[in-house]
User: Fold this.
Amino acid sequence: MVDFCVIDAFTSKPFGGNPACVINLQDDVTLSDDIMLKIAQEMNLSETTYLKKLDGTDHFNIRWFTPGVEVDLCGHATLAAAHYLFENKHTSSDTIHFTSLSGQLTAIRGGGLITLDFPEEIVNEEALPAALLPALGLNPAQVVFQGRNRLDYFVQVQGGLSGITAIAPVFTELKAFKEARCVIVSAKVEESDAVSVDVVSRVFAPTCGIDEDPVTGSAHCGIGPFWCQKLGKTRIKALQASRRQGRLEVEWQQATGRVQLKGAAVIVSKGTLLNV
Assistant:
């Protein structure tokens, strides 16, 4: 038997933000990659994360699985994992260290929020495949910038919040673009939007088994530096405008190549997996 916990990340209220399943594996429990993927498929959330304590009370290995694949980096599931560890007193400190496929990550508790320290994922200008814009339901006149980073495609559009929320991708076509983990579409917020953030985005990941990810912390490792540079800031407030929505505070530490993502989380359910 394996215990699990479902946590909504980048929100302070249940049923908002992005849900993640957190499984903290005990020392005597080992799961194969195949079983971890099958559990993620059973949970059918955008991410299931697995924790295993390493040497030291505040150091854990972390892995992330969508219903389709294991991924190299996930922000909301890391926030959920940190919230789980803090709330269940699996750490004696306000700082947790994670070892991951993307290197060393840190989560720090303070002021009622959790701050994640992640690597930057700089977006470089690059012409994206010609069929991508039609698959997103966009025409070239809407597009200000297109490029990519190590993980994702990135498209900046005009129109602020209303322009972002109006996007209607054709997911069967979007699924064909397997060269990137996600497709990020982002815009600067306009005065008429009347929301207290700087930028708004949506993130689509059908190649990973997720048509639209509700709130994607790791995508903001690219969104943050991109908009900080554009807006002449080191900190921005961001809204991911999915149906569930989520808010993040993002700080780009250009000198060290790191991005800090700040948000809240809430536990919504707990249970036990039988016959595992």
